[in-house]
Amino acid sequence: MKLDLPERVTVYEVGPRDGLQNEARQVPTADKVRFINALVGAGVRNIEITSFVSPKWIPQLADAADVARSVARPDGVRFSALVPNRRGLDAALAAGMPEIAVFLSASETHNKKNVNKTIEETLRAFEEVVPPARAAGVPVRAYVSTVFGCPYEGDVDPARVTWLTRELRAMGVYQVSLGDTIGVANPRQVQQVLERVLADVPARGDDGVDLLAVHFHDTQGTALANCLVSLTLGITTIDSSVGGLGGCPYAPGASGNLATDDLVAMLHAMGVQTGIDLDKLIDCARLAATFVGHELPSKYMKAHIGKQARARRRAERETMG
Ligand code: HMG
Ligand code: MG
């Protein structure tokens, strides 16, 4: 079988947002800023740094404006933040966010539980967010969640995902990220859903911008396999979270997003470029582990730390004897 892979993939880092929003521990603003700056230092160029949502719903990210104002902003780095409504947009603009992302679910029950609105109401709320953001020169990304399964409704119709993707594109979002929110997708399903969406929305626009991205959570360990299928279908933007930061405070041991380090390690090993320095990325994952106060699930990180420890022991033995 010939594996048709792209030369380069854009890694869209969501650890500071999707990762930290699920951590039980409240991470101090200064640590978040240090973490984001370290990710930039590792060569990560697209980072979702926080959310301008209700602090009652997501207290972990209540310091969104402080984070946005405190991070260094070198050229060539794109920072984004989640925004659910006009209020969030105003706060994001006031904090100088250069890009935002809106989000909704493909399943009605999950959408209601996540943003307290029906899907139709959410789309209407986006009318108050997307055009004004674009008028202010701020590009808008969008997420469709529960694409591959809903925790309340089970199966999700791919035709619905396609419809929402088209609606969001028509509204003016530059990219739609298809989310496996609870990590239940399998590679064959990913192929079927993506083929359905790609029949209506191409992976890339005429200007070379990726119109579609994928966002896998690794709950069942299928995220990398799902990425591989996505790559063979022409998707070249992938969301991930350094170290696999995240999980769920209400489900001990549950995995979070696909780990950026596992993704980048696999891509580099296959000759696919990302522009990210893997050693420095591991340092970012280690940093994050210290301030969330527990080990992170990334497999590459564990293997890397094990290799370093073995090399250290070997060097110590050689010095001694
Ligand atoms: P609501 O309670 O229906 O809204 O929440 P409301 O308009 O009645 O407002 C309630 C209170 O929130 C009011 O304050 C508002 O001022 C305030 P109070 O008067 O009670 O003091 N409020 C806000 N405060 C700050 N920023 C705002 C804002 N808006 C209202 N923007 C709302 C509706 C959407 C606000 C709420 O449901 C919410 O914040 N939800 C956030 C949900 C969320 O962040 N979920 C996680 C992200 S999605 C995700 O993780 C999936 C993804 O990763 C992809 C995937 O994995 O599939 C993206
Ligand atoms: Mg997510």
Question: Could you give the order of the helices and strands?
Answer: EHHEHEHEHHHEHEHEHEHHH
Structural class, from secondary structure content? alpha/beta
Extended strand count = 8
Can you identify the CATH class?
A: Alpha Beta
Bound molecules: 3-hydroxy-3-methylglutaryl-coenzyme A, magnesium ion
Oligomeric state: single chain
- Note poorly predicted spans: none
Main sheet attributes: strand count, strand direction, barrel closure: 8 strands, parallel, barrel
Helix content: 40-55%
Distance between the termini: 51 Å
Rounded Rg: 19 Å
> Into how many domains do the coordinates divide?
1
Continuous helix count:
13
The backbone outline, from C-alpha atoms, is globular
Percentage of β-strand residues: 5-15%
The CATH superfamily name is Aldolase class I
The order of strands across the largest sheet is 1-2-3-4-5-6-7-8
Question: Mean pLDDT, rounded to whole units?
Answer: 94
Annotated CATH topology: TIM Barrel
In the CATH hierarchy, the architecture is Alpha-Beta Barrel
Structural overview:
- The structure is a single chain.
- With 321 residues, this protein is α/β, with parallel strands linked by helices.
- It has one domain: Alpha-Beta Barrel (TIM Barrel), CATH 3.20.20.70.
- It has helices spanning 15-21, 29-41, 64-70, 86-94, 108-115, 119-127, 130-135, 158-171, 187-198, 223-232, 260-269, 278-292, 299-320, and strands at 10-13, 46-51, 78-82, 100-105, 140-145, 175-180, 212-216, 237-240.
- An 8-stranded parallel β-barrel has the order 1-2-3-4-5-6-7-8, surrounded by 9 helices.
- It starts with 9 loop residues before the first strand and ends with a helix.
- The structure holds 3-hydroxy-3-methylglutaryl-coenzyme A (HMG) and magnesium ion.
- Magnesium ion binds next to loops.
